[in-house]
Amino acid sequence: MASKSKILVIGATGYIGKHIALASAREGHSTFALVRAAAAADQPLAKAKLLQDFQAAGVTLLDGDLYDRASLVSAIKQVDVVISAVGQSQLKDQTKIIDAIKDSGAHIKRFLPSEFTLDVDRSNAVEPAKSAFALKVQIRRAVEASGIPYTYVSSNGFAGQWLPTLGQAGVTGLPTDKVVILGDGNVKVVFVDEDDIGTYTVKAVDDPRTLNKVLYLRPPNNILSHNELVSVWEKKVGKTFERVYVSEEEALKKIQESSDPLNLIYAILHSVSIKGDETNFEIEPSFGVEASELYPDVKYTSVDEYLNRFL
Amino acid sequence: MASKSKILVIGATGYIGKHIALASAREGHSTFALVRAAAAADQPLAKAKLLQDFQAAGVTLLDGDLYDRASLVSAIKQVDVVISAVGQSQLKDQTKIIDAIKDSGAHIKRFLPSEFTLDVDRSNAVEPAKSAFALKVQIRRAVEASGIPYTYVSSNGFAGQWLPTLGQAGVTGLPTDKVVILGDGNVKVVFVDEDDIGTYTVKAVDDPRTLNKVLYLRPPNNILSHNELVSVWEKKVGKTFERVYVSEEEALKKIQESSDPLNLIYAILHSVSIKGDETNFEIEPSFGVEASELYPDVKYTSVDEYLNRFL
């Protein structure tokens, strides 16, 4: 770890990409973000904030995208590490990144394809989530076949997505009287602050311990069952909520009866909240490492602290 | 206006598209939304809320997108009116919608291409905003050449984008001591609540007065100069702010010196806030109509009311 690698983030204006790009700059890496200029014309004021944050942090903006090969190759040639944070609809097109890395002649020391969910090789998801996760599996296999050094970041749940509704889907805010819980509510789920996902991701890029491994984010204070999560919140607000449980049978029925794309969402929730796919296996040294163990110096935001923001 | 047209919204999960789809259902139209199923896998909980809102409102979700021709043609065949709310990076691909309308054999009574900004045929934008707006101009010409009946919705400024920062770019919230104002701050700008944009847009689709015309949104209580906007807020909070003016010369220099895509954002702001492109021309009956005049029954949210949300 003599010097810090130069990092290119693809998908840097996306939900998790922005946290990664800012973490990269914060951690002292020369950071480049491949950004489609046209996209800035939608919601210019919101985009101005983000892009000015990037500039203030020292992130270099490069005009281009996945589908502009020249821009992609040129960006890759400037860096040592490529992190992809593209969304679901661009997952399969990450083969363009693999091809560009190979053809560029650049010596890319690490490629992190877009993951940032549970471990897609170890999920018990039913359809249509199974096929959605399979796109990430296919990219894993393509990365491995390419010989490019890699790390897969299994970040598990985004705190910013789960905690504002206390883990409930289809509602806007915190519970007032009832809490809907998938399954028996005893399955352990992981909630990680998006800034911490960025930090752990960036810590991994120059670390030989994460080479060709899955980096799991399971900070001990952030692994809670849905029942535990509700109890933590109940204690904070001094109030109890009626817990309405949805059985696996009901959940599966809902998946089957729902049309695209709601069935996909319900199937993802089934995998996380009923099958426990974020936590139902041990991390073996042969395939993975855990982030909070590797980087004990990272002062991650605990679920307890995160929930205090809503008081 | 015997019966209400069936409406297809393309880009319905986008920033303005969701307001249009919900307004369409609220106004009693059979409403269809073409949604890419895969996109639901990103941020499933947030998407679940929106899609469940669609379902609760009676919006029929159709799996597909602009790039899946069969899905597009099949969706078009089910409706009378097509509203596109796609983002900047898909603007040019709206030719696929035009082609699909022509080839489907469907009798589409009205097509509303994605506009929802100032009138792109009447802007004084400098580069690179000029070229960005030109994509909408090109689609206008393609629509006119196709003979498909149309309406262009010049919605002007999104209140939800401009008002939370009191019109300032690159900041997160309301001013605490200073307010940065582009130009002399006396140019009139229009701020329209996104729900109202949805309502006015949908009102227009079955209205012969908007046929082959531009529908301008200029609700009288929502046309303010930046100086007036700041004064309204100052009065509400009982405090005055230091007004920092950025001259046109400085703004143009900033556009020239900024890299992609910040230069685009600054050039859009220059067009709106310095050139006054939302308000610097009269609406002539030959090409346009004004929404609040056509639909005086719509109780639109005034800027004054909107700002009260921040108190």
Automatic annotation (TrEMBL), chains A, B:
<dbReference type="GO" id="GO:0016491">
    <property type="term" value="F:oxidoreductase activity"/>
</dbReference>
<dbReference type="InterPro" id="IPR050608">
    <property type="entry name" value="NmrA-type/Isoflavone_red_sf"/>
</dbReference>
<dbReference type="InterPro" id="IPR008030">
    <property type="entry name" value="NmrA-like"/>
</dbReference>
<keyword id="KW-0521">NADP</keyword>
<comment type="similarity">
    <text>Belongs to the NmrA-type oxidoreductase family. Isoflavone reductase subfamily.</text>
</comment>
<dbReference type="InterPro" id="IPR045312">
    <property type="entry name" value="PCBER-like"/>
</dbReference>
<keyword id="KW-0560">Oxidoreductase</keyword>
<dbReference type="Pfam" id="PF05368">
    <property type="entry name" value="NmrA"/>
</dbReference>
<feature type="domain" description="NmrA-like">
    <location>
        <begin position="4"/>
        <end position="307"/>
    </location>
</feature>
<protein>
    <recommendedName>
        <fullName>NmrA-like domain-containing protein</fullName>
    </recommendedName>
</protein>
